Amino acid sequence: MDTPDLNYAGSNKSRPPPANTVGIIGWIRSNLLGGPVNTCLTLISCYILWLIVPPLLDWTIFNADFTGDSGRECTTEGACWAWLDQRIYQFLYGFYPPDSYWRVNLAIILLLPALAYVLFDKLPFSRQGRWFSLTYPFLATFLLIGGIGLEGITTDKFGGFMLNLVAGISGIVLSLPIGILLALGRRSKLPAIRILSVSFIEFIRGVPLITLLFVAVIILQLFLPPNVTLDQLVRVMIMITLFASAYMAEVIRGGLQAIPNGQYEAGKAMGLSYWQSMRLIILPQALKISIPGIVNTFIGLFKDTTLVIIIGLFDILGQARVLQTNPDWMGKVDYETFLIAAIFFFIVCFSISRYSINLEKRLDTDHD
Amino acid sequence: MAQNRDPSIKKSFRLIQLWTDERWRGLIFQFLLILALCILVAFIISNTIQNLKTAGMASGYDFIFDTASFDINQRLIEYSSTSTYGRAIIVGGLNTIVVAILGIFASTIIGFIAGILRLSRNFLISRLVGIYVEFIRNVPVLLQIIFWWVILLALPKVRDSLSIGDSIFLSNRGIRLPSPIYEEGSFWVLAAFIIAIALSLIIRRWSFKRQEVTGQTLPIWIIAPALIIFLPVIIFFMLGQPIGFETPVRSKFNLRGGFNVTPEFVALWLALSTYTAAFISEIVRAGISSVSAGQKEAARALGLKQNITMRKIILPQALRVIIPPLTSQYLNLTKNSSLAVAIGYQDIVSIGDTVLNQSGRVLEVISIFMLFYLTLSLATSAFMNWYNKKINLIER
Amino acid sequence: MKNKFLVAIVASATIALAACDGGIDPKAAKDKESSVTNAGTLDDVKKRGHLNCGINTGLPGFAYTDDKGNWQGFDVAFCQALAAAVLGDPSKVKYKNLTGKTRFPTLASGEIDVLSRNTTWTLQRDVELGFTFLGVNYYDGQGFIGRKSLGVKSAKELDGASVCIQTGTTTELNLADFFRANNIKYEPVPIETNSEARAGYLAERCDVYTTDASGLAATKSTFKDADKHMVFPEIISKEPLGPLVRQGDDQWADIGRWVLNALIVGEELGITKANVATMSSGTKNPEINRLLGTEGSIAKWLGLDPKWAMRAISANGNYAEIFEKYIGKNTPLGLARGQNALYNKGGILYAPPVR
Known about the structure:
Number of domains of chain B: 3
Helix content of chain C: 40-55%
CATH topology of the largest domain in chain C: D-Maltodextrin-Binding Protein, domain 2
CATH architecture of the largest domain in chain B: Orthogonal Bundle
Largest sheet of chain C: 6 strands, mixed
Shape of chain C: globular
Strand content of chain C: 15-25%
CATH architecture of the largest domain in chain C: 3-Layer(aba) Sandwich
CATH class of the largest domain in chain B: Mainly Alpha
Number of domains of chain C: 2
Strand content of chain B: 5-15%
Shape of chain B: globular
Oligomer: heterotrimer
Distance between the termini of chain C: 82 Å
Largest interface: B-C, 63 and 67 residues
CATH topology of the largest domain in chain B: MetI-like fold
Distance between the termini of chain B: 55 Å
Mean pLDDT of chain C: 85
Number of helices of chain C: 15
CATH superfamily of the largest domain in chain B: MetI-like
Mean pLDDT of chain B: 86
Helix content of chain B: 55-70%
Number of strands of chain B: 8
Radius of gyration of chain C: 25 Å
CATH superfamily of the largest domain in chain C: Periplasmic binding protein-like II
Low-confidence stretches of chain B: none
Structural class of chain C: alpha/beta
Order of helices and strands of chain C: HHHEEEHEHEHEEEEHEHEHEEHHHHHH
Number of helices of chain B: 13
Structural class of chain B: alpha+beta
CATH class of the largest domain in chain C: Alpha Beta
């Protein structure tokens, strides 16, 4: 059979694109040097990089001191990292007794499964897992403070990055139920409840955390009956929890608003009571939508836990300051200690936010 | 109970209804809640009164009339160490407001630029902006405030300060600017300035109308600044230069005279602006991405230039998505300015702390803090809500 | 319909408010108050098994941590001596780190039993804020440090200078007073912590740095080019630093006062950490015997057991030993005794007689 010599556009072998639009050269042309504005931006970026990167590398690595027992042994122009091997544990664990570090580590490791069972449905042993998640807060408290069988450790030994983690995580976990109640209260048909919820939420969101922390250290004790004293860390955590729950309430309210009205009506039509329909229909959906918002609230709160330094607790910034006032290191570690603290926060917050974006995408496809 | 006498309900009222009837249940629930709250408040008040008494702590707001006897280095109103605590707190409040307003301006500008650049086709710049946003967002702002302060200390020392025309000086003690001295006739220069602003607003409106009718545009971006600059300048010279300038001069220790912007202020301002800008850039990016691609294509089909497309087509639509989250960023910035205390910028918290420490009035000072920030937050929210409504009206 | 509910709500709120009124009935509050007194700190401490002591968040020599995170220093040593006297063990102290702003409210609220945080004894704190100072453990005064290159010999020549100060302390007030009295203008540069003030001064953010003379010496000792800086001769204020307690519990204040005095008397009588154990079995000196509990009944008057002073001194030694250990010549601070020498050795340290 003859093949007709027809010149179909599709069958024609296309010519290769011009060499300067593909490959590295093409990529550079289109992404870096396309047009005068673009070229200008590229040049500016290169200049900024050249301005920042080499001196930074020199200071942190090439000119730095890595060994020594005190600041006096740091003689170069660069950074002084000699304190790291001795003091890094205090940065991480504060004044927690070194032979009990495993308790903190264990509490943090156990947090992962506890969280996983809350966030995901399709895990093995999900029933037992849920129970584990529920008991985890008590387990963690027991591990950190001690008690039956474990050596008791008072909260004034808490410090360093661990204090930031403890304050941030417990703040979020405790604020979740309060936040749900406040969000429901804000949408309630009962005026007294609505007004109270709105005023609480707006009050807390209207004042800076630092003033609430002042309340925790200075005022809260005045509110209690004489002879009753609350541990300082407990008072700080109460205020952090209240602070977080107002923000949490707004996040969850957003989730509740996103649930179509039909869902509420369906609940009513089935003869479910308010609490039943909330528990079985509305909240599971609303919370799922709110997860990215909750994670963002956590990141914000976690960063804000550094404010405890202003009221005299020794979180990771506090430990940095302790080292800066130590006669052996004074004046040598001002930037270095803060840089280490910044890196710790960056690692934790960045990975959580990446994960949250991931989660957001996955939750999004669920609804399609 | 008072409620039982309600005639409409009384007829069919049975005791069980208190629980089964949704309305009654709600009523009882609310009553109990208010009661519980009241008992709690009463409990707290009585405890506080008792604790204050047993501790022998002074209380009452009369302390605001006592002499402060400390100095403040940045003051927008007259203040000296012989002024009262109340005045000191007002000075602090004004300092907070100044840094908040300037921070809001700067963070908006940086944030919009960064948000637009992040979407740029230029790989290098969009990545660079991405790194900036991710790094800044994930590090506590307190740390950044201290960091900027430490950086600013590395500026030239005061004796080697950089100067522009021997009238503006930059050193690690801040930026020293000439300060105006108002003489007779200076009122007219200020009036000319205000009139110029009003005139350019009117011209702008007129040019928009003309554009709608004829399609011709006026170069308003040249006319308005020219008007605002030249009108007061002409009046200034016509009246024989009624506003003088006191330029800073080098003296034994310091620069003398002029107006000083302290490094503490600059550090706080930079930290708050760049931190908030990182969040705003994400909001702007999301807002721009939310405008459908068809809009951009339509603009291109009409032959509009890229920057006009952005300014006239994309941004106005994106703004509707951007404004609500922007408001909460502004509120965050205002509240974060309270961290000034860490570097000694004398905002309301920093000064209030000193007052608290000197006078021992714990409850009173903290209640002043809270009232101040609540007012500021409510005012910001109100303004942004008004602006949001105004923007939404344009929607057709 | 809605209106009716609102009315009902208001009604219920009114009833609830009436209930609130009952809650803050002044008479009820008064009745309660009379049953609670401030006394009994000693019993509380004994029952609790540890002493709650407020200290600085970090001040070289006075309160700092070692590599293991244990607090020590000149101010901390007093807490330890007090714990040793009352509870028999210097390690039974729970430290609360307090900033300049949180120290007074924390003490007033009863969270700590004693505040030992380089606090200046002033009339207002003693009278209006309701505290009782136990004595003076360090006589300090506010001074200035500046570069020699300024060519200034006295603080009175500082017209137009920038001055670094720590906020929330009496130094801020003294400074304002001093410059006002001498009619000199200055730019205050308030800074939150000592380490930042030091950084600011070294970067020439300010021309001079003012704080307590002890702090100036400590700060100067850490400078690389210490000989290029000088402490000005003027001491512009009296800063008697000492521990304090809440007003209203005289027994507890007495105990604290006499633990402090015992440390000073210990130096006077030559009772040291090393020899206190042997001395407490009896010496020829009746005053030592009275203090260490082999003669007389001072312990009973204080409500303690006879070995209280022995334990207080054996915690960290007597006043001189504590001074030398944390802030004296052989420490990085290198402070001389100066005014803080005993009254019979050229200083003004003077403890009332133990009898």
